[in-house]
Amino acid sequence: MLKAMGQILFSSGLQNPKFTPQESKGDYEIRTYHATKWVSTAINGMEQDPAFSTGFRRLFKYIQGTNEKKCSVEMTAPVSCKIEPGAGPACESTFTVSFYIPEEHQTDPPTPSDADVFIENRPEFTAFVRTYGGFANSVNSHEELQKLIESLNKDGMKFKEAPYYRAGYDSPFKLTNRKNEVWLIKDEE
Contact, 70 vs 114, CB < 8 A? Predict the structure, then answer.
């Protein structure tokens, strides 16, 4: 538990999902993420930040032992949030918050005990990734997403407008040199 708390406080030495860098385009990069398993929870709501907090708390309980094996699982990075916007301005969106499952549990991850938490098998995918600093929230994540969309349109890249991802690599207690990302999935058609 102390190791997990230390990793959360200092965000160092955390395992990350493996990817193959494809290209760097100045203000964004193209990455192909390998097929992996993530532990996830979905929240329906109107606001991104409260949904992200709720999801994080659920998943933190899972890695602390709220799973069928009652074992702790190492914290990883990033914490991703898949955002599936609702159909209209007054419609709920779906926010799927996820932790990457560490390598040692990839083949047989502990089954969640909480009915709202599930194991997600993410197939290989290629993403356009824009990195930014500071404390991520719904406002600056949306601003960075718009900048990514502008760059992709300028470069003639094909991408799926939804869902999109917000990814954070740092503990809330880390004050400087923070790393956040927004991801758009490459349209392979």
Answer: no
Name the strands in the sheet holding 36-45, side by side, starting at the edge strand that comes first in the sequence: 19-24, 29-33, 125-132, 180-186, 159-168, 79-84, 93-100, 36-45, 117-122
Q: Kindly report the pTM of this predicted structure.
A: 0.91
- Number of structural domains in the chain: 1
| Domain range for 65 | 2-186
Return the beta strands (E) in 10-91 as ranges: 19-24, 29-33, 36-45, 79-84
Average pLDDT over residues 10-27: 87
- Of 156, 149, 138, nearest in space to 183 by CA: 149
79 pLDDT above the threshold of 50:
yes
The helix (H) or strand (E) run that includes residue 129 is: strand 125-132
Q: Which two tokens stand for residue 37?
A: 């398993």
Residues 38, 98 contacting (CB under 8 angstroms): yes
How big is the chain, counted in residues? Answer: 189
**CB contact set of 73 (below 8 Å; sequence gap of 6+):** 39, 62, 63, 67, 101, 102, 105, 109, 110
What is the rounded CA–CA span in Å between residue 41 and residue 30? 26
Instruction: State pLDDT tens for residues 88-127.
Output: 777 899 999 999 999 999 999 999 999 999 999 999 999 9
> The CATH number of the domain where 151 resides is what?
3.20.80.10
